[in-house]
Amino acid sequence: MNRLLYRKLKDRLAFFLILVLALCPTLPLFHILLGVVKQGISSISLEFFIHLPKPPGEEGGGVGNAIVGTLMLALSASLLAVPIGILCGVYLSEYAKGRFGEAVRIAADVLQGTPSIVFGIIAYLWVVKPMGHFSAFSGSVALAIMMLPVIVRSTEEILRMIPETLREASLALGVNYWRTVLKVIIPTGLVGITTGILLSLARIMGETAPLLFTAFGNPFWNFNPMQPVEALPLVVFKYAISPYEEWIRQAWGASLVLTGLVLVLNLSARLLARRMGGHGR
Amino acid sequence: MRAQDADRLFYYLCGGLALGLILLVIGIGLTLLWGSLPSIKAFGFKFLWGKVWDPVNEEFGALPFIVGTLITSFLALIITFPFAISSGIFLAEYAPPRIAGPLSALIELLAGIPSVIYGLWALFYLVPVVRWFEMRLGAPPFGLGLPTASLVLAIMILPYAASITREVLKMVPQELKEAAYGLGATRWEVIRGVCLPYASSGIVAGLVLSLGRALGETMAVTMVIGNRSEMPTSFWDLANTMASVIANEFTEASKDIHLAALIEVGLLLFVITLLVNILARMVIIRLKVK
């Protein structure tokens, strides 16, 4: 009887310990979210979104150029990574058998695990050095390489779940394989592929390290992809380590905008994935 | 005939791009190697254990950064370990599905917060806390340095490690657990005796993957580690990691040999994370075989 009591007590004790240890780490995580909202909300105004930054010491100014820059970088990185990523995913799910396919998967995993700062160095050596100056384009090359593995693996996974009968039905109607892929298989998996793209965008939008010596930053408006461009994460970094109070206040504001962007992307990916429900997954 | 040609063309297009992915990885490795050649030629293997990093006198040894990276990453892993395991167990075994679903989704969302924002938060909330502790303990009250960087890293990799632990624990077959319950085991005894042993290699793989993340994490660490390129002599020291020294000095490197040395640090980082990921992959493959 005593032994049973001891075991029950131990069970209780373990539960409470696990509960406490499991809930502890949510505190700093929520504190970060709360801090960003609390500190950032005071900076948010129309001016903050559409104006250029002011020199240090002056009140006001905004991060309009950084918002434009971040969108520009994300768009051009997507243009580079999305078509390539999807076709690689198609290859892995439709054609790849044996060792070569396995090698491609390992390559994607390696890219996934490589620190983002390494892609900054690579884009510097491949694009910035030959061109002779920093540019938005070099930044989007670095970001595109980071998007690739996410898109490749999610496309492969989604297409693998499409029933074989669908392919056979299309082929039986005399449609070529490549048309079957483009008109039947990819449209069927489109929601899942879009989810992957959104997740990869969420991954790169907040990246700072690969932009430090590629997109570099630029205190003025710039719409030319061959020139340096500002980005929200770069602004947060630059302002956060600056000694000016006004800049630090704006760093929190820019963080709020950036966190909002990333969370919206993540949430919409999640909602899409849930809506897919019956389709495929 | 034409139709077959189109099919073949499409096949080659996809296959070519897939081959491109492999070549991209090889290209990254070779480019880093090529970029760091001047430094490799000048310092050889001494680069790995040289303790002096002096851009002015053109003497470069990466040991302070290797040590900084290893200390912060492993410390972060040790700090995060009990919390991550508990979160994983709680979400997989204790929490009812109505709570577990949204809670793990929330944790994964928090994992998506950009690293520069973790850095900003650490700079303004974590640094004062660490400084307060340092003053109590009689250490130099920098607030920045190795302990702060390890803490912020621990917070950053926690959601990742927790969600992998949860996924692995969910893979434990229900029959196995029910058999143990049928023998009269308590919940804790089932977790301790059935779930954890069954999932152990998966949990280890998850921790190794988290370690890989911590090793390459740049921005948050750069903002709170203090950026001192000397060998750390105490736990409270300011330091630098491999990633943070690249982030700090790359744009300021005016001499070619300085740039090459930084690229070699990048090469080291690439190789180390590659090895860590291969290790995790091997553990996962063994798991699948079982």
UniProtKB/TrEMBL annotation, chain A:
SUPFAM superfamilies the UniProt entry points to: MetI-like (SSF161098)
PROSITE patterns recorded: ABC_TM1
GO biological-process terms attached to the record: phosphate ion transmembrane transport
ABC transmembrane type-1 domain location: 67-273
Pfam families on file: BPD_transp_1
UniProt keyword annotations, A-Z: Cell membrane, Membrane, Phosphate transport, Transmembrane, Transmembrane helix, Transport
Annotated transmembrane regions: 66-92, 104-127, 133-152, 184-205, 252-273
Subcellular localization(s) per the UniProt record: Cell membrane
Membrane topology label: Multi-pass membrane protein
GO MF annotation list: phosphate transmembrane transporter activity
GO cellular component: plasma membrane
Presence of keyword Transmembrane helix: yes
Family membership noted in the UniProt record: Belongs to the binding-protein-dependent transport system permease family. CysTW subfamily.
Name the record gives this protein: Phosphate transport system permease protein PstA
Species, as recorded: Thermosulfurimonas dismutans
Lineage, broadest ranks: Bacteria, Pseudomonadati, Thermodesulfobacteriota, Thermodesulfobacteria, Thermodesulfobacteriales
